[in-house]
Amino acid sequence: MPTAPGGAANQGTPTCPAASAPPAPTGVTPAPTPTTRVTLTSDPVATLKLKPRVIEVLSEIFDPEIPVSIYELGLIYDVIVDANHAVKVEMTLTAPNCPAAQTLPSEVKTYVGVIDGVTEVHVEIVWDPPWSMDRMSEAAKLHLGML
To answer: Which pTM does this prediction carry?
Structure first.
């Protein structure tokens, strides 16, 4: 399992996540932070095919201060895949003024965009419901000594 910069010594409550996953694949330029809402109609067949891979990729993007992924932290609210294999990731941050708001959505878009079969990616930051530690997975809580 990859470790965030600073390693285990920085374990604790996330302060403001930003991706620290490996750099974007060669030839892929991170997209600008999304600013518009996009509505996709979920397609059950496409979702069954692509959603597990999207979650796998999101699970590889870690909070920079603790070795816990943004998925395990509960920052990912929904993954929608339509019949054309366009993907929408609804996510949040731990705080509205988080500097990662400028970089994390672009990184999510970049990494999801290189998944074989994905035709386009939309990332939407949502604030309702607000993030809380209750959204963290049991594995994340256990890893951080919260259980």
So the answer is: 0.74
